[in-house]
Amino acid sequence: MATEEEQKFDVKSFATELRDDIENNRIKLPTLPAISLEALLVVNDADSSMADVAKVIIKDTSMATRLVRYANSPLYAGTVKVTSVKMAITRIGFDAVKHAILSLAMKDVFSTPFKLVQKRMELLWVHSVRVASIATLIAGYLPHIKQDEAMLAGLIHDVGVIPILLKAKDRPELAEQSEQLDKVTKALHMLVGKFLLQYWNFEKTFIDVAAQHDRLDRKCDGDKADHVDVIQIANILSYADDDQHAYSELDITKLPAYRRIGDEVVTQVMTDIEDGAAEQSISHTLL
Question: Cα(189)–Cα(210) distance, rounded to whole angstroms?
């Protein structure tokens, strides 16, 4: 029997309130780290150089360290180890460094000082990194999908959960009810994710990922896999060993995304996941 506190909470009312907050720009949104925003401004300036970007990045020791580690990851690893920010930007490439900065900034976005939702936020980040790692593996077999874009898409696919958790921490009767909070999150996270990435001025490619990654029957123009397809399959594969999640029993071969990516690619990625080395190496870059 439901407790008195559970009876008082109205899931539908909370959802309506959250939607109203979104529509009227009242929702509490996380912000990207200041150093990331400053670096992105420089990257987006047509007159900027790699040296200009490096000057900004080295102001933040944590970001600088992450960028160097990122440049030494399996995505870019070369014969010479990268030891400086300038070398990292050169290795990554000026055009790709924007996605690298955004990927590395996500770790700070997926954090909260509020103990009531802190554990959920930590688990959300770990899951996002897992999906990003698998998506990167998939993209490695798809010439038209860049691995750095697949990684970023994986990291942001569930970003809409964050504002929901931040709002829920003010409603202990919801935050302490896992089942109720799961229902709200499932119903609203794609809508909120779309809004949040628009607010951050992300490219449409990534907005579509946040808005459609759980719409497994989505229609797609053409037979070529896109970023949403990659994240859908990566997300499902991330739950392969979790018999508590509905995706663990899903027949992945029936999905449009599976058909567009191709049986050969998915089978190879599943082998890569079983091997573990490549996925763990990518995850280490982000965790």
Answer: 8
